[in-house]
Amino acid sequence: MPLIPEEPQIHESAQGPRATPSSGRTAPTPRPVPGPRPVAPPRPGRPGPLRPTPPAQRTPRDVATVKPGPSGPATPTASGKASAAPQIQLIPASAEGALDAADEAVDMLLDSGRAPGDVLVITTGEQHPWAAHELSFGETAYWALHDSGDDVFYADASHVGRAATRPVVVVAVNGGSDAAAAQTLPLALTRAGALLVVCGDPQQINSVLGAGV
User: Fold this and answer.
1) Are 7 and 30 spatial neighbours (Cβ–Cβ below 8 Å)?
2) Which one of 21, 50, 172, 206 is separated from 183 by 20 to 30 angstroms, measured CA to CA?
């Protein structure tokens, strides 16, 4: 049953204040649940993540929570026991706006206290500028950054199979075929330890997750 988008929120447990956007009024910016945020050491000789500058004016996006069914994968813990399936949250966005929406979600997570190394960002279409930049130094250097776990890591759909599990996975459905999205979203869910945030067309995402989870 397709989900009806609700108010914007990026969180893993308790909900913050609810606000319903109305004509001429902007809803408050959602905030994820704060957590410890260690400072990632700078990489010598390398620029930081190349995130596009967000536009000065933003349009509030509704966020709907998608609850995976009983067959959803569970994430093993360090003790070998299965934990609860990760929460799934949807940020409606067009293919052209999905990458910006994903960057905004990452910024909110980091601003609320999430450690950079907790976050993995996946794109289904064009690579994130950070990934394109780091891959210009070669695959070995690129995956060394992934393995260090010190910073947000950006990968496209073709690299998801090699990416390790992180507490939060953000997927930007920013292009690519429906088949690519159908393969990427369920795989991204297995890489999310606590929260999967998907930015894209709600009808497409609900269809894919409903069939793949």
Assistant:
1) yes
2) 50
